[in-house]
Amino acid sequence: MPCPGQSSNLNFYRYQYFRIFNSWNESYALSGEVYRATGIPFNDAYRYADWILTVPLLLVEAVAVLALASNIASGVIWRLTLAAFVMIATGYPGEISSDTGTRLLWGTISTIPFIYILYTLFVELGKSLKHQPPRVQILTRNLRLLLFASWGFYPIAYLLPVLLDGGLSANGVVGLQVGYSLADILAKVGFGTLIYFIALEKTAHDRAVEASENGLPSAAGKLPI
Question: What is the pTM of this model?
Fold first, then answer.
């Protein structure tokens, strides 16, 4: 059963996605067989407000579930959280701009912390895998690959309004929102599921080690329910 804080977070996330849907729905109306702009601008700030909370949280969970030494984990968490905040904050000015050059400029700046986060997850956290149980090593590798694949959607989607039809076209804007939505599903649902199974494996392994040290029957391989 979720604690009150978790319930509040879930309600906040639901609110953000409802607002994204409503804002999109208000911005376009069906005229004949074609959707046309109503003149009410679509507000992408709701999506960025969601990311500014969920992206650092996902990264913190990835580090915390590995149960690294506190002096190592705290440093990695702070650096990843800061990088995630800078990545999202610098991407937003380009997102709301109708100028291609401005979009590319801020997108390039936002890519720097994006690359740093991937480097930290693949190189620095990779060093800790040899100290993890075999199943946790496999799940963590899958977690990093999923993160790389899902996060790879975001810069591609970000550039779609520029790449399609040579400018900020209707096709590009639709492609942008579809790309973001697909990436959100992969990054949040898939990432969260793998985090959950890593936590189960770590718990089962730690219980087996504790039982072995105390001379009790081992429960290794049995995941807690």
Answer: 0.74
